[in-house]
Structure formats: structure tokens, C-alpha cells
Amino acid sequence: MSTLLGTIRQQAQRERAGVRQAFRAVATRNRHGGAQIGVQMQGLAGEQVNGELMQHYGFTSAPLPGAEYIVVPVGGNSKHAVVIASEDGRYRVALADGEVALYTDEGDCIHLKRGRLIEVVTETLLVKAGTKVRFETPMVEATGDIRDATRSMGEDRQIYNGHVHGNSPLPSQQQ
């Protein structure tokens, strides 16, 4: 009986040895097209591996070469590798406990901070709304010029302040 168990154990060990376990890899290239992003990566042992970048619903990213991956070979086979997590510490945003951020390598960031503050950092912020944009707040503040398709708010003030009807005086309350 013990010889049979020994044989079974040896056979199980050989089988397990042939099954690739989850591993870390470094991104080398993305393949865009279709519904999934294909990735090329280098395992820590130097092997080249192709895989699929799985992502959470509603979120998508295309990590740059040098990003790190956690890879699961489906069925233990590296030929069907799935990236289940990605990270790139080169661009990571410093966070306090409980905070969340979306960020890019260019420095763009949406940072949900403690104290119920959301900070958006970018060069140009474009909001595309098909119907309207609505702010429910007691105050909207801007540190720079506010402009519509015609002119700035400062230019509107100049028009208002210099506006008269016939011989009427200038407005007594200047803007």
C-alpha cells in the first residue's frame, strides 16, 4: 500500500511541476484591437509571454512598457496567460489611507481625497454633455477668465460699465 501511495505522490508531483503557477512579469508592448487588449511581457525568468489584459468593468487602461503584471496561466499553460493586475510605480500618486486616484504617466490625475475633496489635475478639461451641465452648489469660483463663445466675463463687464441709453448716465453700480 505504501508503495502505491509513494507512486501516486511522485506522479502528482510530476503533474504539478508541469503546471505553471501565477507569476510576475514586466510589460513590453500592447496589442490594441477588438474588445481586449493583448499584451506582450517578459517573465522574471526572461521568457517572452503573450497574454490578455483583463480589466474591471467600466475601467480600461493600456499600461506602458515597464509596468508590472501579475499573470495567471489559465490551466497552468503560459500559452493562455491572463494579466489580472497591473501596476506602474513610476507614475503612482501618493495617497493617504482611504484615498483613490486615477492617473496617467503625463501627470493627469483625478484624486478622491480625504475630507470629501475631489481634485482634477490636467492641462485641458473637456466635458461633453448632450443636454446640459448642472451644478447644484451655492457657489462656483474661478481664478482665471470665464469665457463663452462670444467674449469673456471681463469684456461683458466693460460693456455693462460703459453702457448708456441716449444721454443717461453710466450705471451707478459698476461691475
The oligomeric state is single chain
Alpha-beta content class:
alpha+beta
Main beta-sheet strand count, sense and barrel state: 5 strands, mixed, barrel
**End-to-end distance:** 98 Å
- Helical fraction equals 10-25%
Tally of DSSP β-strands = 8
State the strand order across the main sheet.
Answer: 1-2-3-5-4
Protein architecture, described:
The protein is of the alpha+beta class and 175 residues long. It is built from two helices and eight strands; from the N terminus they run H-E-E-E-E-E-E-E-E-H. It has a five-stranded mixed beta barrel. The mean pLDDT is 88.
Main attributes?
2 helices, 8 strands, three-stranded antiparallel sheet, single chain, five-stranded mixed β-barrel
SSE blueprint and pairings:
Elements: H1 2-17, E1 23-31, E2 37-43, E3 48-53, E4 68-73, E5 81-87, E6 100-103, E7 109-113, E8 117-121, H2 153-161
Parallel strand pairs: 3-5
Antiparallel strand pairs: 1-2, 1-4, 2-3, 4-5, 6-7, 7-8
In short:
The protein has two helices and eight strands. It has 175 residues and is α+β, with helices and mostly antiparallel strands. It has a five-stranded mixed β-barrel. A three-stranded antiparallel beta sheet has the order 6-7-8, with no helix packed on it.
